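Researcher: Structure prediction, please.
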Amino acid sequence: MIMFVDVAFPISSYKVFTYKAPPPLVEKIAVGIRVNAPLGRGSARGIVVAVHKSNPYKGKVREIRSYVDDKPVLDKPLWELIIWMSDYYLTPIGQVAKTVLPSKLSTRYAPPTLWMVRILSKGDNANLGKLGKNAPTQAKILDQLKNYKDFIQVSELRSFASSPLKVCQGLEEKGLVELLKETRTPNITAFTFDPISKQIYFTKNQREVLHDLSLMLNPKKFSSHLLHGVTGSGKTEIYIEISRKVLECDRTVIILLPEILITPQIAGRFRAVFGDTVALWHSKLTQAVRAWTWKRICLGDFKVIIGARSAIFAPVKNLGLIVVDEEQESSYKQEYPAPKYHTREVALMRGKLHKAMVIMASATPSLESYYNQIKGKFLLMIKILILISIYGEKGALHWAQENPNYATFSQVGEASQIITRGGSIKVEGTEANVRIPAGHPEGYLEAFAQIYSDAADVIQNKENKEELLKLLPNIDDGLHIMKFINASVDSSSKDSKWINLSEII
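Model: Predicted structure follows.
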């Protein structure tokens, strides 16, 4: 039986080309299958966009030559994503398909094999003298192998023979050496990052966020959310806990990060929790690692994919969660080559097609995401807040990350006061080292600048040395702070129970 197919190629043309699918290839032919087909005087890889029982083209048609993959790569949602991107970004479907399914990658990829060789004990017999006369090249290689106790690569013997494998095969026939064919599989799980394990204590606010997101997990319904939390507020741990719930439902996860440099660090935290089901995906991977990783993703060996913007096209099946970390970053925009797309938009559409949860996360959400939340396109606007309250014998101080430039000061028996950053309440001598303008909460930089400046004055034996020494932190202060931190962690793990610092060792 002969079938006919329309194939789109990665060229700047919306035209498709009709080919004949000969009987040996008919069995696997389907829309979305990548094929090798003649194009002009050469050949190219394209994707099947339509299948016909009869020839829709009146002219003469040529035959497709082979399949690119030995297993189906595209599921229905990913194919629909390709069609949507072609329409939405006004790009020929062949160019979109090349972006989603890189032409250099195939499920047929096989890692390279290496020939290994070692000498056997038989190599020490009396007949070795004859070998030097009848086969001098074999004798040279055998003499070299005496320096190694274990297997070495045959290629290391290239300086002794132009075809060392052929020579070693001759020695193997004589029982003098042993040859071994070894497959070098790339280490795709641990070559760039190490597992990072740590004890996690969720704050009350984080537990509320996890509870709200967990309620929205529905395998039959798409949902999108905006997660607003500053750096250090624990967004990564929330990603991990939601991913855990998604994986328990036998679904997969894609975590998108704006920078390749931070990918191994985040992946280390995920790998500590989910083990070898985690894979990295970005442009800095070697070609061999990239090809092997892609094949194993297609086979379903990986459940969590972490990477830069191209990871949104990872061919995972049964996708349940997409996280776009720091969604406001411009690095999520693809400018060249076509299609010119925004990963945030593609993530939302893929989530909709897979009926998955999509989380947009940022310390400073983009205007688009904030607007979409106001208009109800995002179901939840979740803030991870950092709240600090200090209680003393004569008063208390309250600060919230949501309004970092304001703090509330309450004295016993008096009305509360609002202290503003750079406001009327100032301590003499603190303005000199202030480097960060109002609107930024990174006060620790100012604190360190002040400490370093005062320490320099003490070292230089300034006139006010004794007064500065009273202000500078010492070892006792450091120990007290460590007690405070341990007490805070202990309190968090006990549902905000009050902890007496005197009980902390």
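Model: The CA atoms of residues 381 and 503 lie 39 Å apart.
Researcher: Thanks, that helps.
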